[in-house]
């Protein structure tokens, strides 16, 4: 995580929370007794912010200063609401909406690379879950080559809720998974579509996989049976571009 996006000390963190600064992750010293810190934790728990209770040594290493038992990493961008981005995408008559749903992508470099490809392929928005995924940090900004400032990002409490909302808005949800015989090349991506990419280790969770409209895979012709998620995502996005150029 980049030090430029760290806030530490009880009152600086409190003021950031009161000012609606987007907090990606909160670190609190284990066993600390402080009513203001309790207030901060309660407020961020209600918004499903990721909170870790750690030894004081961890905070010492993160801040190298008087942290007072608390530190937060703020996001370098402002997140947008899923309702706003879907409405905007649907109102654009010149282009079929295209969304990207990331189910717990944990590697910052993969996350940044995916954002960069998404911007190059004119994705309307990237949807991530508030907990469990890679943080939006200075490293994400760097890896995305600045694309993070050009592609809207939405944070939702649960990926499943986002899928229901997209489907209710007339958007087909397609999961990128090897657990299907259907190739991405046989999937119609010319209509309003949301692509779901799974985490590096586990892929798309079973609960999410059970909700999608279609599943699609990439042909793997070598001996290795999987691709890096950012590479796979690029292949899916550019197949979408290819299909839509012919419409």
CATH homologous superfamily grouping of the largest domain: SPOUT methyltransferase, trefoil knot domain
Question: Which strand order does the major sheet show?
Answer: 7-6-5-9-8-10
CATH class term of the largest domain: Alpha Beta
As a whole number of angstroms, the C-alpha radius of gyration is 19 Å
Structural class per helix/strand content? Answer: alpha/beta
Largest sheet: 6 strands, parallel
Order of helices and strands: EHEHEHEHEHEHEHEEHEH
Question: What level of helicity do the residues show?
Answer: 25-40%
Contiguous helical run count: 9
Strand composition percent: 15-25%
Shape designation: elongated
Mean of all residue-level pLDDT scores: 90
Summarize the structure.
The protein has 9 helices and 10 strands.
SSE map:
Layout lengths: L5 E3 L1 H9 L4 E7 L5 H12 L3 E5 L1 H8 L6 E5 L7 H10 L6 E6 L4 H13 L4 E5 L8 H6 L9 E4 L2 H10 L3 E5 L16 E6 L7 H4 L4 E3 L12 H17 L2
Parallel strand pairs: 2-3, 5-6, 5-9, 6-7, 8-9, 8-10
Antiparallel strand pairs: 1-4, 2-4
